[in-house]
């Protein structure tokens, strides 16, 4: 510390906040940003600001969207009797690439993980349960990863869902 200009250290610190980016990688990325011409660097900063200001969670499925309700939830062509539960928005993208699934989704934004201090109340579970009240949904497919956390979360949800008259199924 002290060898770098303060704004450079600050930029390195921001990159180092990202998951999987260590101090060395953060420094490498910060130097790349400094090497950009000014207009490109501002485009980069604007893209971060824009994404954060315009994208929020869908009021129904909690996936990221620019609208109040996302394109999948508001589509008339989807099977609204089936909800596929996934850990994060990236999983929805992966499922959509297969083009075989025609139902709806629900994004938990995490998995239950006692090791990391993440409990059920930190996930979008009450938003899922609220969607099962009107008798339309028949099946909830648990598509969390087959890890310890993924299995524990799927089992926890199945216990909550069964009494509501909805069939929980497991996708590995
Ligand atoms: Zn949605």
Condensed summary:
It is built from 7 helices and 6 strands. The chain has 172 residues and is an alpha/beta fold. It starts with 5 loop residues before the first helix and ends with a strand.
Descriptors:
four-stranded parallel sheet; alpha/beta; two-stranded antiparallel sheet; binds zinc ion; elongated
Q: Could you characterize the architecture of this molecule?
A:
This protein is an alpha/beta fold and 172 residues long. Helices cover 44% and strands 15% of the residues. It has a four-stranded parallel β-sheet with strand order 4-3-5-6. Strands 1-2 form a two-stranded antiparallel ribbon. Helix 7 links the parallel strand 5 (139-142) and strand 6. Helix 1 packs across helix 2 (23-35). It starts with 5 loop residues before the first helix and ends with a strand.
What count of helical segments does DSSP give?
7
End-to-end distance, in Å? 47 Å
Strand content: 5-15%
Bound molecule kinds, no repeats: zinc ion
Quaternary structure type? single chain
Q: Please estimate the helix content.
A: 40-55%
Please provide the ordered H/E string of secondary-structure elements.
Answer: HHHEEHEHEHEHE
């Amino acid at each position: 510390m002290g060898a770098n200009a303060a704004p450079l250290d600050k930029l390195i610190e921001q990159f180092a906040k990202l998951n999987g980016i260590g101090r060395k990688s953060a420094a490498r990325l910060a130097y790349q940003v400094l090497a950009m011409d000014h207009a490109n660097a501002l485009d980069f900063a604007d893209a971060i600001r824009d994404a954060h200001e315009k994208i929020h969670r869908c009021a129904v499925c909690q996936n990221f969207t620019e609208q109040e309700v996302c394109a999948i939830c508001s589509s008339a062509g989807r099977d609204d009797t089936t909800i596929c539960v996934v850990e994060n928005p990236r999983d929805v993208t992966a499922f959509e690439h297969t083009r075989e699934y025609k139902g709806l989704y629900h994004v938990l934004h995490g998995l239950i993980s006692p090791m990391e201090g993440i409990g059920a109340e930190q996930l979008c579970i009450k938003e899922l349960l609220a969607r099962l009240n009107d008798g339309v949904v028949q099946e909830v497919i648990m598509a969390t990863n087959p890890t310890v956390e993924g299995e524990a979360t799927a089992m926890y949800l199945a216990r909550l869902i069964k009494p509501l008259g909805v069939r929980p199924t497991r996708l590995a």
